[in-house]
Automatic annotation (TrEMBL), chain A:
Domain of life, per lineage: Bacteria
Alphabetical list of InterPro entries matching this protein: RNA_pol_sigma-70-like, RNA_pol_sigma-70_dom, RNA_pol_sigma-E_actinobac, RNA_pol_sigma70_r2, RNA_pol_sigma70_r4_t2, RNA_pol_sigma_r2, RNA_pol_sigma_r3/r4-like, Tscrpt_reg_LuxR_C
UniProt keyword Transcription, yes or no: yes
Residue ranges of every copy of the HTH luxR-type domain listed in the record: 128-155
Keywords from the UniProt entry: DNA-binding, Sigma factor, Transcription, Transcription regulation
Spans traversing the lipid bilayer: none
Protein name: SigE family RNA polymerase sigma factor
Family label: Belongs to the sigma-70 factor family. ECF subfamily.
TrEMBL record, chain B:
Matching InterPro entries: Quino_amine_DH_bsu (IPR011044)
Transmembrane regions listed in the UniProt entry: 41-60
Protein name: Uncharacterized protein
Keywords recorded for this protein, A-Z: Membrane, Transmembrane, Transmembrane helix
Amino acid sequence: MGQDATPGLPSFTEFVEVAWPGLYRTAYLLLGDHQLAEDLVQDALAKTYASWRRVREPAAARAYARTVLVNTAASWFRRRSWRREWPTDELPETATGHDPSDRPAVVAALRTLPPRQRAVVVLRYFDDLSVREVADTLGISEGTVKSQTSHALDRLRVALGDDVVPAPARGLPRSRP
Amino acid sequence: MTERLTDLMQRAVDDLRVPPAPTERVVAQGRAVRRTRRRTAAAVTAAVVLVAGIGVGATWRGTSEVEPARPDDTGRAEDLAGNGPALAVGSTVVLDGGDVIARVGADAVRSLYYTSAGVVVRHGTDAAQDGSAVMRFSLLTASGSLTRLPIELQSAVPSTDPTEPYLAFSTVAEGTVQVVVLDVRDGVEAARVPVPQVAKWGAWTSPVVSLDGDTVYVGSAEGSVSVDWRTGEVTETAEVDVYPDVRGGHTIATADGAPIVVDVATGELLAGTTGRSGMLSLSPDGRYARVGERIVDLETQAITRVGLRGPIGWSPSDEPFTLDGDRLTTCSPTTGECVETRLDLPAGAGSDDVRLGGVTYES
């Protein structure tokens, strides 16, 4: 492939095989649609390929691919036609009557979030990134990550219920550092 | 506290049927991305001077490793919030379809340039574009802050890419053309690249440039060139004329007297017109072309009609829009549906004082 020259680094094709499932799951949670998730990951990995000669270690490659994925999603979200079609500002009325443990419930709840809040939640609570890592990935301040997380959890609490997203205890921080 | 949320998301994707990785398609697409970023044929490497580089420049400098945490090269994440049309009336600038309104002192606005960090406003003592006066530049962000940039230009034609926080322009120093890339977030030069290959460029004091991703296209009467401003690599570019306008790898050219849209990397014809069709305009990211009230999706070739009359601008998210008095009409390029908004604009302004984002106002 002409892209596999760095000693100790997996070939790009090996990287794609290893990174694809994780990126696909992140993309699915961000978008809530299989075909779009596949397209998003393909776009992100194609952009990673274009920079592959600069990669020196696998962790950087994974983080880079994830950053590209989130930013590619961001460019999709910028289109108003997209915003009309996918995310909705309308919250489900309450969690009553929902089974929050089923997949449609959590995916649907994520789709009620504005794009940046959704990205913050997925990166923090699914990809297990720290506040600092999320801030770096999204190119925003740590304070913004915290505030966006707080807003997102408030909305998810309405959609999924207190059992899934308990209200923060008074006087305690809402999110881990 | 959020363990159950984490658990739910994990379970939501645990039994997901993950399709096999389309490795061959990824590689093929990656090669196309790389070709767009950097055309290597007949390349002449020029010295690149990174001046106090920050942001992406610093990310790549010093180490050749991919850094994991800088999103800038694919569009800034702040744009997750999205943004609408920008326009100006006199010295009043309106962003995001009316959400942000600011004034650039006593100056008149001459042009608006979309960037990922906000809108760069070119302003001067009047709205003329004839090169008779010095032009000043300011960055207006989505939060409403207005910051002067440390440059003043006369007839040079600058350029931005709406997904990047940079303004590119050219200058001539001791007879040699230089491409300058300014980081509008702090006014610091990210790169200055000498381009001695360009010696004739028409009536402007320095060549017209067009910024598209990592590439600055430089217009030349003897064959335009593209400059990878991160590496200094200069490449002949057959598809771009003396007045380059490249967006998303697409540009407007002429065939038999009629404007057409071509892919800069491949020369592929993407959209054609008859000579009577009128002016072609590319959307900010190059996905759409507009002729009159027809919008062509260059990916799908679908044509949408929008009911707009008069000068038509583009929002940074590729929506055509017009301003009629205080009435802003913004349309979807895919459905043709339009939304009308009333703006609070200064009274008594004439149409000559209006500037729309996504429109070129150059002499």
